[in-house]
Design goal:
By secondary structure, this protein is α+β, with helices and mostly antiparallel strands. It has a single domain, classed as HIT-like (HIT family, subunit A, 2-Layer Sandwich), CATH 3.30.428.10. The chain has six helices and 14 strands. It has a nine-stranded antiparallel sheet with strand order 3-6-8-7-12-13-11-10-9, with helices on both faces. A hairpin with a 3-residue loop joins strand 9 and strand 10. Helix 1 packs across helix 4. The longest helix is centred in the C-terminal third of the chain and has 22 residues. The termini are far apart.
Length: 345
């Protein structure tokens, strides 16, 4: 077998059927670049200027209720709208466009402005998971919604416009690009192998060198084909096609592993770690979709310290993604971190 830790090589992503170039020898360069720490940013539990805090006003004068756990509302500046009229343009297969209906909602995880998933206990995270399930079922039951994307952008670096703990849900008429790609890959794999792609992948990875943390129901690992420096893949151990198939114990386990993983992220560079996280799961088109396996992707941009990020430039924009830190070394660093938050030490 090729010694992956020493030589340039390509790795295949079976979910998207794309390749990633890995160049581990580049970490031997004499200068890796500057390393910086961020100053602690203390936030109040309630911010009167925050449009997500309980009782405060949002756009157009709408006031939030005095919520005590989670709070959901239709996004005041939604990217998708349910009343979009039908229409399309198709000019010789070169100029092509079509209308897209949908609904965008915001989910506040907690009324406390100064929390994040990493600073919430599993018991505090659990109501957010219950809300994700309710929204998946509610939105997915609408006749024009065929996919429900649950995600969180954490940190200004990832475009979050407000530090209050919250995520978003976009329900769309058609399958987004990444979902369509994963749909095709998982379906083809099931047809050709008679088994689930991610079940088989997890069987090979569980407890191995790329595993970061696991509990009775979930495993978080750095995927063999990871693109981002500390990217992780969160996988349900039992085959479930979507979040609505998790029972009470499964939801508790999801809350537990979300807390344990995000604490490690914060501890890595001792900073509120930015990332984009999203669940990929069964479309809501009325089909059973046995090929789908519930999972979540964490895409964090930080490379080596609190403010130094990885950029997709040059070869990566023009050819294919490339990384220097191997998934195995990234997993080892995350795995070795304590589960006690650095601010609590």
């Amino acid at each position: 077998m090729l010694p992956f830790a020493q030589h340039p090589h390509r790795r295949f992503n079976p979910l998207t059927r794309e390749w990633i170039l890995v160049s581990p020898h580049r970490t031997d360069r004499p200068w890796q670049g500057q390393v910086e720490r961020s100053a602690p940013d203390a936030k109040p539990a309630y911010d009167p200027t925050c449009y997500l805090c309980p009782g405060n006003s949002r756009a157009g004068g709408i006031s939030n209720p005095q919520y005590a756990t989670t709070f959901v509302f239709d996004n005041d500046f939604a990217a998708l709208k349910p009343d979009t009229p039908a229409g399309a343009v198709r000019d010789g297969g070169l100029i092509v466009a079509e209308s897209e209906r949908g609904i965008c909602r915001v989910v506040c995880f907690s009324p406390l402005h100064n929390l994040t998933l990493s600073r919430m206990t599993p018991g505090q995270i659990r109501p957010a998971i219950d809300e994700w399930v309710r929204q998946y079922l509610d939105l997915g039951a609408m006749d024009f919604v065929n996919y429900v994307q649950i995600f969180e952008n954490r940190g200004e670096m990832m475009g979050a416009s407000n530090p209050h703990p919250h995520g978003q849900i976009w329900a769309s008429q058609t399958l987004p690009n990444e979902i369509a790609s994963e749909q095709a890959s998982q379906d083809d794999y099931l047809r050709s192998h008679g088994s689930c792609l991610l079940c088989n992948y997890l069987e090979r990875e569980s407890g191995g060198e790329r595993t970061v943390v696991e509990n009775e129901a979930f495993t978080a690992l750095v995927p063999f084909w990871a693109v981002w420096p500390f990217e992780t893949l969160l996988l349900a151990k039992r085959h479930a096609t979507a979040i609505d198939e998790l029972n009470g114990a499964g939801r508790d386990a999801l809350a537990d592993i979300l807390h344990r993983l995000t604490v490690r992220y914060d501890n890595l560079f001792e900073t509120p770690f930015p990332y984009t996280m999203g669940f990929h799961q069964r479309p809501t088109d009325g089909q059973k979709h046995p090929e789908w396996h519930l999972h979540a992707h964490f895409y964090p941009p930080l490379l080596r310290s609190a403010t130094i990020r990885k950029f997709m430039v040059g070869y990566e924009m023009l050819a294919s993604p490339q990384r220097d830190i191997t998934p195995e070394s990234a997993a080892a660093r995350l795995r070795a971190l304590p589960e006690r938050h650095y601010l609590d030490t």
